[in-house]
Amino acid sequence: MTHAETLVPPAAPPATPQRWTPVLAVALATFTVVSSEMMPVGLLTEMSHSLGVSDGVTGLSLTITGLIAAALAPFTPRLVAGRERRAVLVTSMVLLALANALSALAPNFAVLAVGRILLGAAMGVVWGLAASLGPRLADGPRTALAMTLIFSGVSIASVLGVPLGTYLAALLDWRFAFWTLAALGAVCAAVLAAVLPALPAPTARGGERPGGPAAALRHRGVAVGTAVTAFVVLGHFAGYTYVRPVLEADAGLSSGVIAGCLLVYGVAGVAGNFTLGPLSGRHPKAAVTAALGGVTLAAVLLPHATGGVVTVLLVLGLWGVAYGGVSVSTQAWVRTAAPAAIEASAAVWAGVFNASIALGSFAGGLVVDHAGNRAVLLTAAGLAAAGLLLTVLSRPVDRRPDR
């Protein structure tokens, strides 16, 4: 992905209705990896008790995965070199299935950490290749829709995967949620192997020097967009990773009610993804402003909304709608800023996004362990507000709609 502007994929056959199946298969892959990454959010309390560690330590399971994925994503094309991309994706999903199975079996945090390291490796490869697949699976005007669908898996997993896992854990236990993800990873590997066309490694144009993350960041709009992404994702994961302890300790809600609250958050997030998605293509700044404003407001309000289930649901609904639009809107900002370097800028965006997940959950763990639940939500609001201010004061370099 770091060689975006100098790599030429082999010519793809004209898009047909049947070729949306490969696009949806890749969307399933992005949904599966992000659901796997974020699953500890909804299972934090049970995992902590079972493994005999604090909520803050358990939150490190997100940090581990995010750091590994962030390190690998920008350099994946170089790491996989000339290997056929379909085979690389299938292998990554098999590794993801094994990682989730190991997490389900973990008797202690050390074994869980090994599983999360393997998950980070699988996720980094998928993130590093996914942005390049839209133009290879759909042609011309369909490319933008293909990219939106592929990355909708990220948005939907971010807001729906966690509550579904929480619900499964409430029915049985947290290990069953990870076994479910292991099975989904295996199914996804089989689907990718069955429906993806052959995807040979792109070839370089003769004489051109490849561009990488540093070249992409020389575009001012890309640099600002990645900074905005860092602030909001840091803030979101600093707070949302520890929403369950807030709802248990401050609102006094049971596991079943919490699962329902997170499901409402998830449904709201899906709505936010498909509401802010179309706006992002035409007005990326407006979409990013709306998303960050909603996350900031929700983090500020949640400590004051714990007096009843209705107020909790209203605030979590706002948070879901807002965060559901974060990935699609910040992606649109970055793509608009550097339309000639989409893959390179997307690689930077992916690395920053994953690093921010890791650092956000880590910072939130420190705050929640030392200052409590309300402090972690105020920290989240402050970080998101910093991103909102930067958004208001800036704009993408290129105002043209995404292509």
Unreliable sequence segments = 1-18, 205-210, 398-403
Determine the number of helices (DSSP H or I, runs of at least 4 residues).
Answer: 18
Strand content: under 5%
Element-level helix/strand string: EHHHHHHHHHEHHHHHHHHH
* Number of self-contained structural domains: 1
In the CATH scheme, the class would be Mainly Alpha
Rg on CA atoms, Å = 20 Å
Give me the CATH superfamily. MFS general substrate transporter like domains
Distance between the termini: 18 Å
Widest sheet, order of strands:
1-2
Shape: globular
Taking the sheet with the most strands, its summary is: 2 strands, antiparallel
Round the mean pLDDT to the nearest integer and report it.
82
Question: What would you say the CATH architecture is?
Answer: Up-down Bundle
